[in-house]
Each structure stands twice: as C-alpha cells, then as structure tokens.
Amino acid sequence: MTPLALTADLARKARLAGCLYLVIIVTGLGAELGLRAPLIDFSDADATAAAILAAPVQFRLAIASDLMMALSDAGLAILLYLIFRTVAPGLALSAMVFRLIQTVLIATSLTALLAAWLVLSRADELTDAPVLALVFLGLHAYGYDLGLVFFGVNSLIMGSLVWRSGLIARAFGAGLGIAGLVYVTGSGLRFFAPEFSPVFLPAYGLTILAETAFCLRLLSQKGPK
After folding, report:
1. pLDDT, tens digit, 9 for 90 and up, residues 90-111
2. CA-CA distance, 187 to 2, in Å (whole number)?
3. DSSP helix/strand/coil, 119
4. For a designed S-S bond to 187, which of 127, 145, 169, 208 qualifies (C-beta 3.0 to 4.6 A apart)?
5. Who contacts 210 (Cβ-Cβ below 8 Å, separation ≥6)?
6. Distance of alpha carbon 21 from alpha carbon 2, whole angstroms
C-alpha cells in the first residue's frame, strides 16, 4: 500500500473526476427518475404505450441522458484509475475494469429502449405492440440492474482504495463500500427474489448520499500551495 501525496496534477485529476461524477449523478437520476419513470407503468402496457407516444421528446431525452452518463462513466473509470493506481495497482485496475463493464452493459441496454420505441412507432403493423414494448422496457431495466452488479463490485473496491489512500477521509471509503453492498444486494434481489425488491428500494438512498458526498469531495480537492 502506497499512501497518496497530493500534488497539483493529482488535484486537477480529482476535480475533473468530480465534474464527471456530477454529470453522471445528474444525468443518471434525471433519466431514470425525472424523465423515464413518469412514462412507464409495468403493470399497464396500454397506459405506458400511450404515455410514451404522447411524449416522444421526453422518452428520447431519457435515452440521450443515459448515453451521456455512460460516456462520462467511461472517462471517470480511467481518471479514478490514474488517481489511485499508486495506492494498489491491481485493485485500481480491477476497479476500472468493473466500472467499464458496467458502462458497457448500461449502454448496450439502451438498445432495448430503442426497440420499445420502434415497436410503438409501428403499433399499427404489430399485434400487441404495447405488451411487446413493455417487454423491451423490462429488458432494459434488467440490463441496468445487471450493470449495477459490476458497479457494486467497483464501489467495494473503490471504497478500499479510498480507505487506504490517505488522500480523502476514510468515511468516504466506508460510504462507497456501503453503496457497493446496496447495489449488489439490490440487483441480486431483482434477479432472484423480486418480491423483496420494493422493501429494499429505500436503501438506494444510501448510494445517492455516499456517491454525492464522494463527488463533492473530489470537486473540493485543492493542490499544494
């Protein structure tokens, strides 16, 4: 383990990482909660189809926001590796790989959203188009959760790196570790015990708190005078 010494270059990288993290938080939550969630009701295919067709710009903007999140996530994965690689090179590389896998899975799952839109836009040519579209929307949701399994592992590793680094207070590392456990547990429930997912949902508030705190701490890094 090699504790980090704060340099001007390291501080610049940390602030840039914080900027990308902020973009990820805003676009990710905005796409999922602000733009997409009001349109989708997994218990009512017809209502979901009507809502999406009535707000095509909103639906496409959600896809664009997720794409921006994925692009920023790829950049952040590389930056965090560059920042923490001297602490534990193997762990830093592992964290980058797991985060990039998550990025690829989430970006790939956007094709399911596009498929849902294509189905609904040709509803007059297809039988049960709303139901088929809802299947694609569900596929996207599962793809997102699959990505969060890898992100959960990334968060656990990043928590360890931050804890060891000496660059940031250990509380931030502990927060990331807790967030990682929430992501892995939540996705596991989604796949293997979906009846418990609604009960676990409030735990995701811990992930928002931990990641936002880490983001703000990165943004506040200042180099030596």
Report:
1. 999 999 999 999 999 999 999 9
2. 33
3. helix
4. 145
5. 172, 175, 176, 178, 179
6. 25
Instruction: Tell me if 152 is assigned to some domain.
Output: yes
Structure tokens at 76: 């952040």
Q: What is the dihedral of CA 197, 200, 202, 206, to 10 degrees?
A: -120
Distance CA 188, CA 197 (A): 9
Residue 27: CA atoms inside 13 Å, Cβ hemisphere, count? 18
Q: Residue 25 has which token pair?
A: 């938080």
For the entire predicted model, the pTM comes to 0.93
Contact 133, 67 (CB under 8 A): no
- Its domain, for residue 128, covers 8-219
Please give the Cα distance from 154 to 168 (Å, whole number).
18
The reply to whether 1 falls in a domain is: no
pLDDT digits (tens, 9 = 90+) for 160-175: 999 999 889 999 999 9
Q: For 176-202, how does the pLDDT look when each residue is reduced to its tens digit (9 = 90+)?
A: 999 999 999 999 999 999 999 999 999
Q: Which amino acid is at 148?
A: L
User: Does 66 map to a domain?
Assistant: yes
Residue 3 covered by a domain: no
> Phi and psi (nearest 5°) for 148?
-70, -20
- What is the residue type of 24? I
Q: Number of folded domains in the chain? A: 1
| Chain centre distance of CA 9 | 27
Compute the distance between CA of residue 208 and CA of residue 21 in angstroms, rounded to an integer. Answer: 12
* Distance of alpha carbon 178 from alpha carbon 163, whole angstroms: 13
